[in-house]
Design goal:
Length: about 120
């Protein structure tokens, strides 16, 4: 079975990055709907969106659906701290990923045959 990892890196600055964030959710949902194994990770500036989605009027339902289905795997621990959203994410009960010097280990997924989409 094909495995897809979607990594949202776009921060919250600008309308274009809001579109990137929405598309990360949409692409993850589409892959899931087509029966693929899919995971979504928030890395870099994308950690800001992980703190926003649970309260965003338009994104919340899709985000919560992806969380409930196990697609959302978590946020980069290092970047959550660097982008100053760590405390907010802790309060939301986010899962922190710190497999490689505080960051997600994308190389391990590549080695395991995952295709990676970065947005």
């Amino acid at each position: 079975m094909k495995k897809i990892l979607v990594v949202l890196l776009a921060d919250k600055n600008g309308h274009e990055n809001m579109a990137r964030a929405l598309h990360a959710l949409l692409y993850a949902q589409q892959a899931k709907d087509h029966g693929l194994t899919v995971e979504l990770i928030f890395d870099g500036g994308g950690t800001e969106w992980a703190a926003t989605f649970p309260r965003h009027e338009h994104f919340k339902p899709l985000y919560e659906s992806l969380v409930a289905s196990g697609v959302v795997k978590g946020v980069c621990a290092f970047c959550a701290k660097a982008f100053k959203v760590e405390d907010e994410l802790k309060a939301l009960g986010a899962t922190f990923i710190a497999a490689s010097a505080g960051h997600p280990d994308i190389g391990a997924r590549l080695a395991d045959g995952w295709d990676v989409i970065t947005i």
